[in-house]
């Protein structure tokens, strides 16, 4: 943003002057052309267009427009604010220009905010600066303020301090087209061409130089508007927009997949209109102008029918489209990016079962369906897109058309299956026959090859006829289960497919490329000595250079190197592994190595008696196993157990024999390989079952950093599993992690901190870290702020350790919060998430809340509420909510408009963010000076929070109920939420079984009973009987809230009858003996109301 301001500030003056000089110096004809093309056509873009089209406005009941609280609007306001702040210093002449009409709005400033340069009389303020008629440039009659030039506008934003953004918002809301008041009606926002500026320039040419400042000011505002539009366009262009074709495809897919068969996730989905316009839309033309594409009625398996509007901005629920009911078009839910996202939110059954559907292969009649060969994906990899072999063939054909055809007979290239399919045996008999021939011819060129390498191939045979396919799989080995062929869906694919980077002009290739090609050819045809010599020559080249790496692959060197692994010659194997270890750092090559069966060869080498070969094989596996399929291959072929065996050595320093040194090196290489493999959930379990934990614990005591780094890296990767966290505690590794954190190696410190970050989820580990004095080293690592990875790991460990209040007290002694507050700015999001999380936990203690305020931490926390990182927003809401428990902090939050930002987060689609925002709103309402008025000032805020009672997330429901209990304390707000239907929604939730939700639901019902006939409505909605069952809970807090709710409900006779029928009296009598006075009074009052009703009935019967 600063860069944007610089652009506007430093360059605008030159641009304005040059435009103006050009316009005035040219002849009249050419001047007219310039004006019309450069100015008049864009007259409509003088702040009006940006505010009308780029800004996002809401509409209140009265129709008055308000700027919505969105990231786009916040960005626009900040740009305008900085433009106004710096205007007086950069353009002093234009700043003095008197507006045609004053800008007027309701301000939060009062007379005490004004100092020198103003005449203050009671609450009235007038500026000493006046126009030629003696009118003050600024006049304040609270709450109204009027301003006549930019100089005073700049002064106001300076005086407003933390409230300056709010002042800009209020000013723009009150002056939707500010250029009209600044420059006159001729500059009103219009469409098309306008000759007003042309006439103004003609007046300047006639000698009226007073218009020069007006034109300069116009140009400055025009450039600001253009910049605002450009910024908004960049942000809007990043949003996903739906089209009629996209919606049609989604509907067809859901109809085909979701509503057929035994595992249907929907009952049906249909359009409300069968007529399709030429543009693909099914909505009336007068609704298409709003971007609406079609209306759907979706029958789910567990909810009422959903009436859905699909628009270019997304999909949302409507009121049920019916002829003659315009209000039915109104949006009744949040906007979602597509139909699947909406259905996941609205239908728990759909959300639970949609992931079980296979979208990649849909059976169609043979006459209309193409034959597809799809790579098998097991249950844990359903989260990854499946790539059909048909798509791969199309890609190969496209590549073939792009490459020269001079060496191809007939100009065509024979397509061959992927190397991966050949390696697995997934080829037709004809392809296998052809493949065998090529292998035989290649075998004639190689020497010293083992005759056994053509054996032990998995045999697959398949029918190519559509609709019928048979497969035979040989036994894979003892102990191999189907689970070995699936992988974790939680892990990310470390290596994405890298695009091929080939030069079309061979002359651009370095000489090493051609040298490697020659050496590989000699490698194919030489004897044993020649092979070793060529391997040595290849190793002497710069194999870290990508050109050399690709040269080996292009000439078929990878196949030769992998075949050498199957020979009996140690030197050939060693040379081949050394080369493979270097070039496997290339993501394209490591995939090719896996496709060619190289990993299987390396796993077998781990059984070799030669320790050098074991080390090289393990290191190469560590490089290749960077993607999911490679990790699975190593596990399936027994590589994990062999790698774990390499860890069995004596890591003690001093006096090691040569053989022991080699064992330590094997342990290091084995740990490196296990580190790469541990990114898979199944591999983590396999590593544990192979007995790696005690061996890793022993290696953790090593004095060598090069061993410790892969060992700790493996542990911190595996610590995401609870079984590993328990084992780390039981094996005493926490003490070693704390000790190694003090070593002078930042990479080791980072991995130790990450391990503590993951293990500190358990309370026992947090206590052990404190017991072994690990908190102080963590605090000292905060000084390494330049290393962002280390800083992220350290702040993460501090955050998790802060979950224990004993650790928070220690951090308080070490003055950690002061340091963390300083890290709230200019840090990557990974660090901010952890810093804010630690502050949120620390703020649970009152003393720390005061510390955060004194260190200036409230404002940066509130500023982070405008972010988009979901994890960060969850932590920020918790931190702001904790700080708001202090009235002094709450005053700052309210002044910074923090409550409005929290309320806007209730629109966030992430339930965790919604819940965090609702929890944070509770202390804000409780500690605000005029909470009722503050809540009412949020346009649509009460309706928004009531609608969240439709959520299916228990945490969201509990937090919203807690917020409603606070809101309902204000009578006017209670009346509004009652009109929005809060009573039936709360009553519908009373059958909940979650104790946390029950407690806050009872509190909300108790406070909502205070208005009108809500008590009667709760009884009619069936909320009384479920509340009685709450008293059977063992939670005292539920007893307190339920007793208050029943006391309020018992003021209605029919509710008393329902309570008595459900056995409430006995339960209340027990509660009357509670040690809590509030519970006693509420229980006694409820029993008293029931008794008075009974006495009244008795009296009426005898009378």
Automatic annotation (TrEMBL):
It comes from the Eukaryota. InterPro entries: ARM-like (IPR011989), ARM-type_fold (IPR016024), Armadillo (IPR000225), GSKIP_dom_sf (IPR023231). ARM repeats lie at residues 597-639, 691-733, 940-982. Gene3D superfamilies: Leucine-rich Repeat Variant (1.25.10.10). Residues 402-419, 442-459 have a biased composition (Basic and acidic residues). Transmembrane segments: none annotated. Residues 360-508 are annotated as: Disordered. SUPFAM superfamilies: ARM repeat (SSF48371), Hypothetical protein c14orf129, hspc210 (SSF103107). Residues 460-485 have a biased composition (Polar residues). This is Armadillo repeat-containing protein 4. The lineage of its organism: Eukaryota, Metazoa, Chordata, Craniata, Vertebrata.
